[in-house]
Each structure stands twice: as C-alpha cells, then as structure tokens.
Amino acid sequence: MHEYPRFTINRSLVVLLPKQPVLDWIMRVDPNPPKLTLEELRQEQDAFLISQRAAETVEDAERWIHRHWKVFFEAFLHDWYTEESWWPKNRSLKMFKEWFEVQYHSMVWDLADETVEHEDWE
After folding, report:
1. What global pTM score does this model have?
2. Distance from chain centroid for Cα 13
3. 90 three-class SS
4. Beta carbons of 52 and 106 less than 8 angstroms apart
5. Angstrom distance (rounded) from CA 35 to CA 92
6. On the CB side of 12, how many CA atoms lie within 13 Å of its CA?
7. What pLDDT does 3 receive?
8. What is the Cα–Cα distance from 12 to 22, expressed in whole angstroms?
9. Phi, psi (degrees; rounded to nearest 5) at 37
10. What separation in angstroms does the CA of 30 have from each of 1, 110, 113?
11. Burial code of 1-29, b = ≥16 C-beta within 10 A, e = fewer?
C-alpha cells in the first residue's frame, strides 16, 4: 500500500443500508429468525460499483438508482433468502425507499497494489 491514496477508479459506489421494515420482514418470514438488531443488520452490506458517467452528481446517482432499484432490491432479498416465495410481493420504488437508505460515494480510492479481478457469478 502507498503511503497515501494516489489512485482513484472510474466508478462510483452505492451501498444499501436496511431500515426497520427489512428487519421486520426477516423476523416475520424466517421460521427461525436470527437474533439481530437493526444496527447489526446494517453493519456489513454489499457495495456496488457503478459507472461514474451514470452518476456524476448525487442527483444523477439518485436517478440511476431509481431506474435500477429492482436489481438492488432483489439482490438484497436473494442474499437473505433464495426462496422467492418469502420475498415481499408488489415490490415498488416506494417500498424500496421505505426499506433502504442509499449511500452514494462518488470518489473511490484504490489503495491496493494488486490488479482488480472480476469474478462472474452466473
């Protein structure tokens, strides 16, 4: 690692932080719900790299996320339960906003000396 950050990458970062309705859903659908607080649930979330061109401003990022909310929502649900019948029905952008706080970061620093590698999960 360098003594100080030197390199940025041409991506922006999006993180979904679950809100109380997510925890309520987990506790309701899981036959053996985990002992989990909202604070614990919010601690370790997936981070998504998106194109900088798609999100040059916070407003751009919000518009981009609003166009792609379904992908984020379903990725989160799938991380918790692969059984889609457990997923909430009639998901919408409104529900997405009620369930998640979206953090957007326009500056992503690369502090590693290794080459970035991609792994296809399909």
Report:
1. 0.84
2. 9
3. coil
4. yes
5. 28
6. 20
7. 67
8. 25
9. -100, 165
10. 42, 38, 42
11. eeeeeeeeeebbbbebebbeebbebbeee
Q: What is the pLDDT of residues 27-57, one digit of tens each?
A: 999 999 999 999 999 999 989 998 888 777 8
Please give the structure tokens belonging to residue 20: 């109380």
Closest among 121, 38, 39 to 78, alpha carbons compared: 121
Which residues in the chain come in under a pLDDT of 70? 1-5
Extract the tokens encoding 23: 């925890």
Task: Considering only CA atoms, give the Rg of the chain.
Answer: 17
Q: Which of 64, 34, 70 is nearest to 51 (CA)?
A: 64
Q: pLDDT at position 26, please?
A: 97
